């Protein structure tokens, strides 16, 4: 082993360790690896920067625009609403219908975006059918991952595999080359989840006890309040005619600094009325009037002191009085992988002034953060309990439904109507452009990258997608990750590292035959994909698969197809994919829940690859 190989393998090992540790963003880790390869002289500056001009990176960026257009025009949301109407209340029927709808949607839109759109729909379906969402969300996540196996553009590993073939001087995979295997995996997954898999799923979140048609979310909201451990901090006070608060604005009252309380909602309540009026938006300039009812988040002792010193009446809390879900609404939101909230605290984000709502609590991996949670830097997968009146929460739900900074995971019935929007006028145009793109890609008449760019530009020019939103929502982390990791393959090839690794695999497994090599490549890839991104896994494994095929004297197509499929089998851990992380808290899952259902499914996919990959792609 030469010193150059040792350097590259050391950098690769350090990169994998940093990926698994999750201490740094994936794109930052990839850039550090790229810098290390350049500074050690393994790669020239031209070789190090080549990944940023690679056709795979440009193609993925263009396809993101296409997927974003389907989201922004409401096409994806319409499909999800259709599912809600036809799925019924049978758990088995919902799981089957859910997987049948989600997988094809994920074949053309990012799997994470698909789950973001479907998450509130599935939670609502579970509530109406009186089924625990824990029984539905993992099947949805698995279907989204399997959807990436259906087409060339379904997931980055497929594109990486196709380009690896082209770079090796062979015909690249076609648009539907992955479809037979993907359909087999989807069919087997649906049968598995319907017959056995659903019995391996937990009931972590208890289903509501009310009738399916009642559409009463009070129980769910109360459970959310309990889960975030803020029940005792919700209080209601009424302003007496003699209170010194009268005429003062929220900022002038200094309530938050003097009493450490957060004003959640304010209701006008004249003395001649039996009930308060509708909750109104609260901001720094909101002024207090005699009779106003105030919902606050405050420790009991502080609320009592505030009531005494400011001449306020203490009333039953929102949970006891029925204000919850009538005036003060509560929703749970989950941060998305591209959220601008990541790495920033609730205080830094100024959530109240930005959205007109308040954050009652934060959960991380299903556990509420204690103490000063508002000062804690937020991470992907964190969930926030958000409270506010209808007038402020309604536009928040509407604006975020297209996969913004967070996913609305639990929505009160009063706000569900806000999501029942019709498709935008540009929706038919978006559908036509997307279908034309798919037809041309399938026909192979124009290079795939060119077709995708043409479709992306057409969608922008026709107003189907806003350029500002594209730049804001573009998956820059994924693009930088791919662009920065591609030169790692160059470094391995240049120094002989690829030959060394492939040689070890061939010497160990090769004597057992090509079928054993498929098993070995699948297992190695699927293990990596449980802890690092499927894109990074594919970039690392493709050149090794090519070299192993060359050494064994067989065609590389079956090995590359196997690696691409295995890279998308991120079923066994909650950190294997953003898709799995997104459903972690809404489903109340634990780490082992994913492995219980995911490992058997991975073994089934391995069997499919062993039997059908050699038949469809002979050695």
Automatic annotation (TrEMBL):
In this chain the RCK C-terminal domain maps to 222-312, 317-402
Membrane association type: Multi-pass membrane protein
Keyword Transport found:
yes
Q: Give the main localization category.
A: membrane
Q: Which SUPFAM superfamilies match?
A: TrkA C-terminal domain-like
Q: What keyword terms does UniProt attach to this protein?
A: Membrane, Repeat, Transmembrane, Transmembrane helix, Transport
Q: Which domain of life is it from?
A: Bacteria
Q: Write out the transmembrane intervals.
A: 5-22, 28-44, 56-82, 94-124, 136-155, 175-196, 480-506, 518-546, 558-577, 597-617
Location comes to: Membrane
The name under which this protein is listed is SLC13 family permease
